[in-house]
Amino acid sequence: MKFSVSPVVRVAVEPRNPADLPKLVEGLKRLAKSDPMVQCIIEESGEHIVAGAGELHLEICLKDLEEDHACIPIKVSDPVVSYRETVSEESEIMCLSKSPNKHNRIFLKARPMPDGLPEDIDKGDVTPRQEFKARARYLNEKYDYDVNEARKIWCFGPEGTGPNLLMD
């Protein structure tokens, strides 16, 4: 089941007693299974993140985590709201990014997608796993994309499935 509400409020959680970390991890797995709208993420830093659709939703999830799923006392950070930006018009200048060793460069320009395309990506009508010729044909017929341009989609994002496209 796919929801149109995405998690926008995040907190970091940790057990009050470090020895209870395995219980916390197991509790986070149970919480993620019990509530499809919550996201439990382990950051590269090792920090455990719980993200929910709002402060009330997150508060309920944390109560469930502490009392039902992990059954341990937990410390919770202050909530952080995830902000999102959108492209409203094509950028006027080309942006350059270089790799740390300065041997690789990528030039980027942002432009908005046609109305309805992000929704089609969310619904699954346009997917990264779709055969590229079929996807190009669909984008050409419905959104008037040039077939050759539509074949140059490198990836979808965020997380490989979201409604943003990186194109050559």
TrEMBL record:
Assigned keywords, A-Z: Cytoplasm, Elongation factor, GTP-binding, Nucleotide-binding, Protein biosynthesis
GO cellular component terms, semicolon-separated: cytosol; ribonucleoprotein complex
Superkingdom to which the source organism belongs: Eukaryota
InterPro entries named among the record's database cross-references: EFG_II, EFG_III/V, Ribosomal_Su5_D2-typ_SF, Ribsml_uS5_D2-typ_fold_subgr
Pfam families: EFG_III
GO molecular function: GTP binding; GTPase activity; ribosome binding; translation elongation factor activity
Transmembrane segments: none
Every Elongation Factor G domain range: 7-69
PANTHER family: EUKARYOTIC TRANSLATION ELONGATION FACTOR 2, TRANSLATION ELONGATION FACTOR-RELATED
Protein name, per record: Elongation Factor G domain-containing protein
Species, as recorded: Rotaria socialis
Organism taxonomic ancestry: Eukaryota, Metazoa, Spiralia, Gnathifera, Rotifera
